[in-house]
């Protein structure tokens, strides 16, 4: 059991998956801070310019909140989560697309290298052509 687990951990797939999870977590932190610190305030500022419901920004942003029975629902957090999801998904799409393109080009080069080597059929065609040429020379000599 321990040996199988060790082989599983050493395999490239498990190791690649672990690295991907760690990098994905770090990337999520970057995207979350970008959305929370930059994009959400810009959206709130944009909304506050068109909705005049208070003297300061906090009062104007109350339009994003819904209060039901004293419970406040803050929709700016939902908007932040949606933006974070879209940005993360788009960047991951670009990474996967680039990786697939690289994998496809490597596979294509390997196929070209394999195609460049002579096959058994090529050797048989050469032998046939040599035999035909030799037979033609013998016919001309007679």
Layout of helices and strands:
Blueprint: H1 2-10, H2 12-50, H3 57-60, E1 65-68, E2 71-74, H4 75-116, H5 120-141
Antiparallel strand pairs: 1-2
In short:
Homopentamer. This protein is mainly alpha-helical and 142 residues long. It is built from five helices and two strands.
Describe this structure in words.
The protein is mainly alpha-helical and 142 residues long. It has one domain: Non-ribosomal Peptide Synthetase Peptidyl Carrier Protein, Chain A (Orthogonal Bundle). It contains 5 helices and 2 strands. It has a two-stranded antiparallel ribbon with strand order 1-2. The model has no long low-confidence stretch (mean pLDDT 77).
Descriptors:
2 strands, 142 residues, MS_channel, two-stranded antiparallel sheet, mainly alpha, 5 helices, transmembrane, Large-conductance mechanosensitive channel, transport, cell membrane
């Amino acid at each position: 059991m321990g040996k199988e687990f060790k082989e599983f951990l050493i395999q490239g797939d498990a190791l690649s998956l672990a690295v991907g999870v760690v990098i994905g977590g770090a990337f999520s932190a970057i995207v979350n801070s970008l959305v929370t610190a930059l994009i959400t305030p810009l959206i709130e500022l944009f909304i506050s310019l068109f909705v005049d419901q208070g003297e300061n920004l906090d009062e104007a942003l109350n339009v994003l909140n819904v209060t039901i029975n004293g419970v406040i629902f803050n929709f700016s957090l939902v908007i932040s989560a949606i933006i974070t999801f879209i940005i993360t998904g788009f960047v991951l799409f670009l990474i996967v697309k680039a990786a697939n393109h690289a994998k496809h080009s490597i596979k294509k080069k390997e196929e070209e290298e394999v195609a460049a080597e002579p096959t058994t059929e090529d050797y048989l065609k050469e032998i046939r052509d040599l035999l035909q040429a030799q037979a033609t020379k013998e016919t001309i000599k007679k």
